[in-house]
Automatic annotation (TrEMBL):
Protein name stated in the entry: Diaminopimelate decarboxylase
The protein's annotated pathway: Amino-acid biosynthesis; L-lysine biosynthesis via DAP pathway; L-lysine from DL-2,6-diaminopimelate: step 1/1
Binding residues for pyridoxal 5'-phosphate: G218, Y356
Start and end residues of each Orn/DAP/Arg decarboxylase 2 N-terminal domain: 24-266
Catalytic activity, EC: 4.1.1.20
Binding site for substrate: R298, Y302, E329, Y356
Modified sites of kind N6-(pyridoxal phosphate)lysine: K49
Single GO molecular function: diaminopimelate decarboxylase activity
Keywords: Amino-acid biosynthesis, Decarboxylase, Lyase, Lysine biosynthesis, Pyridoxal phosphate
Assembly with partners or alone: Homodimer.
Length: 411
């Protein structure tokens, strides 16, 4: 999107505000499907947790995508967005058996990563097909908090516990129709991904009635000019060849599935904030904006990088600023960044704000969550209203602390 379009959105809808470019979402989806075009059956399940606005889900539905969900609420949101149950896979962690049963009752694909839950579910519902999430014990991902396939991870059933899985399947007579893994996010080295895929192929050989193999996702996107990203085209070529060879050995054409979130929506998103004040200290020039980690926690939580552009003065002289928010704790978005000269009232654009930004926003400090806008077919569409004070107190229940009058007569 052009800077003048973003400035107009900030003017029309106020700040802070999230803006998503539908064209970028569509191009990323097509890029991924083109990379694996040599596979006979490919299934992309968009990871709802990255950005769960119902209009975004409806956009993915028009592209032919399925969705990956991690809570019963995301399943219900997917159904409300028009997805058929068979287009939805439910991949929770640490949820109750009753929540899994509730999802299964809705007819969605179930993915289980716990031996105990697998046995309980298989005993009660042997006729419901189940996918199993495997932990390949492969360390991958750009941060410890987003590396989920290593030996100490809470996710997945260890590859060393395959005999336990097979015993449960034999005892319950349940059907396993899919095998799944997810090693982590921001994967740089595709060789690590390919190595983990070999583990998954060997595991899949243990199950004779599979319909699909799900390789998760974790593809890295660029966060700044010249940044390293996952080479999707190379991965597509190499993994497709391995997958097609496996299907031939397996004796059946399976579906190759992925569940990307960040790859599809991260670069589409911009977060626009207004500069409240410029504060000069003895060592630093702070640009203080009308937001904080209540709206964009990733830099503080993951140490993630978001490029910050002064779209009000794109050709101004560059100076160094530390961009901070208005929260009562440290909420530094960018430290000592070279940015075109900032004045109070300028609009700053935070890039890569499409994934895990609004979806992780909160009402901390009793601040309102921002509006969301979708730029679709050269027009700005409001897809979520900015919250109001009524939203803050809507579900709160006030206790009556007024003194009670004594109704007894005083003699």
């Amino acid at each position: 999107m052009l800077e003048n379009q973003l400035l107009k959105i900030a003017q029309d809808f106020g700040s802070p505000v999230y803006v998503y470019d539908a064209e970028k979402i569509e191009s990323q989806y097509k890029r991924l499907t083109n990379a694996f075009k040599s596979v006979k059956s490919l299934k992309i399940n968009y990871a709802v947790k990255a950005l769960s606005n119902i209009s975004i889900l409806k956009l993915f539905n028009t592209l032919g995508s399925g969705i990956d969900t991690v809570s019963i609420q995301e399943v219900q949101l997917g159904l409300a967005a028009g997805f058929q149950p068979k287009q939805i896979i439910f991949t929770p962690n640490g949820v109750s058996l009753s929540e899994i049963e509730e999802a299964a009752k809705l007819g969605v694909e179930i993915n289980i990563d716990n031996l105990s839950i697998l046995e309980q579910f298989g005993t009660k519902h042997p006729n419901t097909p189940v996918c199993i999430r495997i932990n390949p014990h492969v360390m991958a991902g750009g941060n410890a908090n987003i590396s989920v396939g290593h030996i100490d991870s809470k996710f997945g059933i260890s590859i060393h516990q395959i005999p336990h899985i097979l015993r449960i399947v034999e005892n319950t007579k349940m059907r396993i129709n899919g095998i799944h893994m997810h090693t982590g996010s921001d994967i740089l080295d595709i060789e690590v991904f390919l190595y983990a895929s070999e583990i998954l192929f060997e595991t899949a050989k243990q199950f004779k009635n599979l319909d699909f193999i799900d390789f998760g996702s974790g593809f890295k996107v660029p966060y700044k000019p010249g940044d390293i990203e996952t080479n999707i085209e190379e991965l597509g070529e190499k993994l497709s060849a391995k997958f097609n060879a496996f299907c031939k050995e397996y004796g059946k054409d399976l579906t190759l599935a992925f569940e990307p979130g960040k790859f599809l929506v991260s670069e589409s998103g911009s977060f626009l904030t207004k500069v409240n004040a410029i504060k000069q200290t003895t060592s630093t020039v702070f640009a203080q904006v009308d937001s904080g980690f209540n709206h964009l926690i990733r830099p503080m939580f993951y140490g993630s990088h978001h490029e910050i552009i002064n779209i009000s003065n794109p050709k101004g002289r560059e100076r160094f600023y530390t961009v901070v928010g208005y929260i009562c704790e440290t909420d530094t978005f960018g430290n000592n960044r070279r940015i075109n000269e900032i004045n109070e009232g300028d609009i700053l654009q935070f890039k890569n704000a499409g994934a895990y930004c609004f979806s992780m926003a909160s009402n901390y400090n009793s601040r309102f969550r921002p509006a969301e806008v979708l730029w679709y077919k050269d027009k700005a569409h409001l897809i979520r209203k900015r919250e109001t004070f009524d939203d803050i107190i809507n579900n709160q229940i006030e206790v009556d602390f007024s003194p009670k009058k004594n109704k007894e007569l005083v003699k």
